[in-house]
Amino acid sequence: MSETPDNLLYAASHEWVRKLDNGIVEVGVSDYAQESLGDVVYVELPEVGADVNAGEECCAVESVKAASDIYAPVTGVVVEVNEKLDDEPELLNESPYESGWIFRIKTDDSASFDGLLSAEGYNASVDD
Predict the structure, then answer these.
(1) Domain annotation covers residue 42
(2) What's the CA gap between 122 and 102, in Å, rounded?
(3) CATH number (domain holding residue 67)
(4) How far, in Å, are 46, 64, 93, 99 from residue 34 at the CA level?
(5) What digits encode the pLDDT tens for the residues 70-82?
(6) How many domains does the chain have?
(7) Lowest CB count within 10 Å: 2, 39, 100, 108, which one?
(8) 24: buried, middle or exposed (CB in 10 Å: 19+, 13-18, 0-12)?
(9) Residue 101 located in a structural domain
């Protein structure tokens, strides 16, 4: 059974969001998503400074099974990427909610959060 922490928000496209300080959010893929992907072998990180819009593709993950686009769950600017994933893409599988985060976005668009799901809502969406 997939783990879905209650302290995060989730996009229907399987990204999670952790609110940090000063309008910055951390983004990764859910445990459900990483299990579906299988062993991750490469992560294409977004560019720091890139403008991203909620619901639009901003990077990609490749696994032994398939390649999958990662979508920005909120609108803003990429302020940091997890460079550890360049050498250790398997962190997405091993620790999807901690050391396997992918990027951080500075957002001032609180409306971006309106379409995100609670853990309960996300679990209901993947159980369908």
Answers:
(1) yes
(2) 19
(3) 2.40.50.100
(4) 18, 12, 6, 14
(5) 999 999 999 999 9
(6) 1
(7) 108
(8) middle
(9) yes
